[in-house]
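Worked example

This section walks through a single chain of length 171. The input is the sequence exactly as stored; nothing has been trimmed or padded.
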Amino acid sequence: MLRDHIRHDLDILFIGFNPSLLSGKTGHHFASPNNRFWKILHEASITPRKYKSEEDYLLPEIGLGLTNIVARPTKAADEITKEEYRVGREILKEKIKMYRPLIACFVGKGVYQQYSLQKDVPWGAQSNQTVPGTTDFVAPSSSGLVRIKMDEIVRIYSELPGLAERLKEHK
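Given that input, the structure is written out below as tokens.
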């Protein structure tokens, strides 16, 4: 079972679809060598260095957290059932209400579509807050299968530190 790395008042809570089989086996988020999550966070100046998946538990120390909309590991996100999404959506909303991160960053447009039940979703900060006090932010998936150029992915993620700073100023 993959544990969340979450605490109260994080700057950014990163939310994935669900763990990969490798993440489920190792107990670490974004464990696949084909997943670019850790590289993206560093290149977007969200982390001071490139962390390894085995260091995922250190993220809360720097104001970052990790969770998923569905807890069950699968080979691919298309194996997740509608019922798992329905239950996961409610659990995730409760986590966000309880822990109150400044930003809920959805790692993949599909994750946010499942969470918000909205079809047309732009990249970046969303105009509506699903949970009051937390800004929803949609970023591209970090999967190696994503066809968006790495520079564009990093550009979108690089909006997060400035957004977090502005939200702290208005808190």
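What to look for: The chain has one domain: 12-169.
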